[in-house]
Give the backbone structure.
Amino acid sequence: MSLALSCLIPLYIVAIVLYAVRVLKGPTVSDRVLAVDALGFDLAAFLTILSVLFRAPIMVTTALVLALWIYALDIYVAKYLESKEMGD
């Protein structure tokens, strides 16, 4: 099990770097928002993998809080973009 988790860590690091590049160089605002969203959820999954690997249950709680914050950010950005399209 730890071998499988150890193989996942480099994949998540590569994904995090690619999302960070998309956040910095995104051609549109929606691309950047999507990259931040995916980056947040990948970080939550990465924290969960690390918590299993290091046997630290507090990291699962941290990952859950991070995922909830990212979800709230999604709702906030969606409401903002919707009101912007309607002209309010």
In short: The radius of gyration is 16 Å. Residues 2-86 form one domain.
